[in-house]
Write a structure and sequence with these properties.
Pfam families: PNP_UDP_1 (PF01048). By secondary structure, the protein is an alpha/beta fold. It is 35% helix and 21% strand. It has eleven helices and eleven strands. Helix 8 packs across helix 11. Bound molecules: 1-O-phosphono-alpha-D-ribofuranose and guanine. Guanine is lined by residues 183-185, 262, 264, 267-268, 284-286, 309-310, 312, 324, 329. Guanine binds next to strand 7, strand 10 and strand 11.
């Protein structure tokens, strides 16, 4: 354990150094036993400097130390993308991120090739109920797609760059369109539980606090140092989704609005919800924004929506009903999965037909 602590501290002091190219052989788990420690120490140090890396101590395997990336160099992302494209024999065009309880979006995929997160090299694992932890690649309405059945959240202890790393994997797999979905609390008083809010903008509360998935050295192979975020949410896709909702007869349940991401895992206080409302926020959650930032940085077209799973109280009261809880979030997502699936599949069909 001493080894772990000393290396952790060492790594912390290298945060600000520019990222270096990492040789593939450095990316695999390193077995370290005390007598060999000195020999491999410099090897590990080199890898620390190459990228921001933390070490995980695995009690099951004696003194085995596993390198875990916090900020992923291009080559590592490339390697993960190769693993998926070679393993599936596909280059998907549309990427889907399933929100809490919305894993059924991925169940629609035909001829699925399924990758458990824990079997994908250098991939994080899902720790939240309602996020299965599988990447599903296949076809949907004729289009090639890949879907994350389970996303990574900041509150799980993952840095933002790691939460949104799969978006870069999608990009290198060939994805042009990102569909990001989430479960969210409705702050806009016009929203009812079960409604769908198409995101047309966001307020990045984690960004206000100085946190971004793009922090650290910029690799121009992904995108520019200073990406613009106006028009992040594709207007054509929003308009098409509204048309689809009309055709589905659910237009009264569809809104267009502003989402805000907080760090979680706690839900908001009344004072925070009042403040968010004053800022023009319509729905609040703990995800999506950093994925959208990463997608726009690498020039993907973005469509995102929030399923309103609970109404946020903005007045003080003693009512237990006013308290958000994850069971309710999951239950509402389950009830509304059919409408969400239909909206997504019809929109994908339109994209596919338009590009055929
Ligand atoms: O944003 P998704 O992953 O849909 O999940 C939302 O629901 C969970 C809280 O109930 C949080 O994880 C929040 O972010
Ligand atoms: N932050 C936050 N996330 C949610 N996810 C689902 N509902 C909520 C909510 O009310 N607040």
């Amino acid at each position: 354990m001493y080894l772990f602590c000393s290396l952790w501290e060492f790594h912390s002091s290298f945060h600000c150094l520019p990222s270096w190219r990492v040789d593939k052989k450095d990316l695999w788990p390193v077995n370290m036993y005390p007598p060999k420690f000195i020999a491999v120490h410099s090897y590990i140090v080199y890898t620390f400097i190459s990228s921001k890396i933390t070490l995980q101590y695995s009690p099951k395997q004696d003194v085995k130390l596993i390198l875990v990336f916090d900020r992923y160099p291009y080559e590592v992302i490339e390697e993960i993308a190769d693993f998926i494209t070679k393993g599936s024999g596909m280059r998907p065009k549309i990427g889907i991120i399933c929100g809490s309880g919305l894993g059924s979006l991925a169940d629609m995929i035909q001829d699925p090739k399924i990758f458990e997160y824990e079997k994908i090299p250098n991939f994080p694992v899902s720790t939240v109920e309602g996020h299965a932890g599988r990447l599903v690649v296949g076809t949907l309405e004729g289009a090639t797609v890949m879907a994350m059945q389970g996303r990574f959240h900041f509150y799980e202890g993952y840095p933002l760059a790691k939460c949104s790393m799969p978006v870069r994997v999608m990009k290198l797999c060939g994805v042009e369109y990102l569909f990001a979905t989430n479960a969210a609390g409705g702050i806009n008083p016009r929203f009812a539980v079960g409604d769908i809010m198409l995101m047309h903008d966001h307020v990045n509360m984690l960004g206000f606090a100085g946190n971004s998935p793009l922090q650290g050295p910029n690799d121009p192979r992904f995108g520019p140092r200073f990406p613009a975020l106006v028009n992040s949410y594709n207007k054509d896709l929003i308009n098409k989704a509204i048309e689809i909702a009309k055709a589905m007869g659910i237009e009264s349940n569809i809104h267009v609005g502003v989402y805000s991401c907080l760090g979680g895992p706690n839900y908001e206080t009344i004072a925070e919800l009042k403040a968010l409302r004053m800022m023009g926020v319509d729905a609040v959650g703990m995800s999506t924004v950093h994925e959208v930032i990463t997608a726009r940085h690498c020039d993907m077209k973005v469509f995102a929506f929030s399923l309103i799973t609970n109404k946020c109280a903005t007045e003080y009261s003693d009512k237990k009903d006013d308290e958000a809880n994850h069971d309710e979030v999951m239950a509402v997502a389950k009830n509304r999965q059919k409408a969400c699936c239909e909206l997504v599949s019809r929109l994908i069909r339109e994209i596919h037909l338009a590009s055929a």
